[in-house]
Amino acid sequence: MAARILDGKKLAETVRAEVREGVTAFKAKYGRAPGLEVILVGDDPASQVYTRNKEKASNEVGMRGHLHVLPASTPEDDVLALVQRLNADEATDGILVQLPLPKSIREQRILDAVDPAKDVDGFHPINAGLLASGRPRLVPCTPLGCMRLLALAEVPLKGAHAVVVGRSNIVGKPVAQLLLAEHATVTIAHSRTKDLAALCREADVLVAAVGKAELVRGNFVKPGAVVIDVGINRVDAGNGKTKLVGDVAYAEVAEIASAITPVPGGVGPMTIAYLLQNTLTAAHARAAGST
Ligand code: GUN
């Protein structure tokens, strides 16, 4: 039987509508709009699209969103100075530094400089540590989006075996923490995992977040499993054009899974929706003086 398609585009609209209402209430209470500052360094085409979308989406829900575009040659200290200026700016609630940064800039140094209270990506070690110790504050956006999609699928997570393929700080590790918090039994697999297909076949919930086009094949999936595909890979479409595919071989897996996210239109739109939610969360925490 064909899997249910988990429509992230539609669900993201619902989340954005929730945030829009929240922004209206925030403005009424505090007399200002939540502020999101997005920093792009360099001219990576995909990052240009993502950051423009983030700025646009924030303004669409009534926030004050602003994109800073810096040339790839910008010295590390200048990026750091911008982050520090935004840390000190009262009207800024959220700061997002788009990754990847140019090779000449030490990513960790920049991310560690973001005020944890304004870290709407949830990448700061303090926020990662709070999540890992079961006291989440600002949580990475893509994992939050994955969890909302699992809620849409109405999959019981308590006692379920969740296999997360990928161990990045952006997706793999935080989504594993969130699944654990929902009482799933969680296995994190990665490029050195032995017999990945057999391990994945044990999963009730399979999250693919490795950035390898169509790595997860039909024989990786237990019948009836719920599959969340975080991958966004650009591949040759064979007609002189390119196309986007996920980390999951969609057509094969959709025959076996009970529910699956498409690419595009699955996890991707949810990431931006939860960036908006995190910005509102950060704005509330700052306005209430709790951070
Ligand atoms: N690059 C790819 N995904 C992300 C993300 O979620 N946040 C940031 N800042 N950069 C990214």
UniProtKB/TrEMBL annotation:
Pathway: One-carbon metabolism; tetrahydrofolate interconversion. Catalyzes the oxidation of 5,10-methylenetetrahydrofolate to 5,10-methenyltetrahydrofolate and then the hydrolysis of 5,10-methenyltetrahydrofolate to 10-formyltetrahydrofolate. Its EC number is 1.5.1.5, 3.5.4.9. Homodimer. It catalyses: (6R)-5,10-methylene-5,6,7,8-tetrahydrofolate + NADP(+) = (6R)-5,10-methenyltetrahydrofolate + NADPH; (6R)-5,10-methenyltetrahydrofolate + H2O = (6R)-10-formyltetrahydrofolate + H(+). Residues 6-121 form the Tetrahydrofolate dehydrogenase/cyclohydrolase catalytic domain. NADP(+) binds at G166, R167, S168, I232. Residues 140-285 form the Tetrahydrofolate dehydrogenase/cyclohydrolase NAD(P)-binding domain. The gene is folD. This is Bifunctional protein FolD. InterPro entries: Aminoacid_DH-like_N_sf (IPR046346), NAD(P)-bd_dom_sf (IPR036291), THF_DH/CycHdrlase (IPR000672), THF_DH/CycHdrlase_cat_dom (IPR020630), THF_DH/CycHdrlase_CS (IPR020867), THF_DH/CycHdrlase_NAD-bd_dom (IPR020631). It comes from the Bacteria. Keywords: Amino-acid biosynthesis, Histidine biosynthesis, Hydrolase, Methionine biosynthesis, Multifunctional enzyme, NADP, One-carbon metabolism, Oxidoreductase, Purine biosynthesis. The keyword RNA-binding does not apply. Belongs to the tetrahydrofolate dehydrogenase/cyclohydrolase family.
